[in-house]
């Protein structure tokens, strides 16, 4: 596949920008290391990454996390690598776009959390209902998001894609390799 000269390469750092349906900026992750790009997806890693909220507050991610974005699915996945196992945070969101500035998507409030023990929880239903009414998401977006929740649950049940421990192990190891290379190049 010919590489778009504007596409980030493995080892590059990009920003991630989350927006709300009304176009307002919601959250920014400053430096996500790109591990792989393809025609339809991007895999990266956050590790002690600076995050800026829409109200200006800053915080830093606590643990390494493999992030998975897709141009056809209405969700993205954050796999947080913790001492007690992998916890997943799945944002129901528009497919991403990537430009010179950042990887960008619209956050649609609903989230699926998967705990290291496999328990799952649908989060922020009240927030989704409030913003859906406020910003008029409409029936089509509602149907798309519900369909994508079913896809996420199916992927979780079948340990598919980012929900596979092997997937996370492979991409975390690649992150460690690229980090070592970056550190050696700076010496």
From TrEMBL:
Record-annotated DUF402 domain positions: 22-159
Molecular function, one GO term: metal ion binding
UniProt keyword Hydrolase present: yes
Ligase is among the record's keywords: yes
Signal peptide: none
InterPro entries assigned to the protein according to its UniProt record, in alphabetical order: DUF402, FomD-like_sf, Ntdp-like, SA1684
Keywords, alphabetical: Aminoacyl-tRNA synthetase, Hydrolase, Ligase, Magnesium, Metal-binding
NCBIfam families xref list: PRK13662.1
Protein name: Cysteinyl-tRNA synthetase related protein
Native species: Lentilactobacillus kosonis
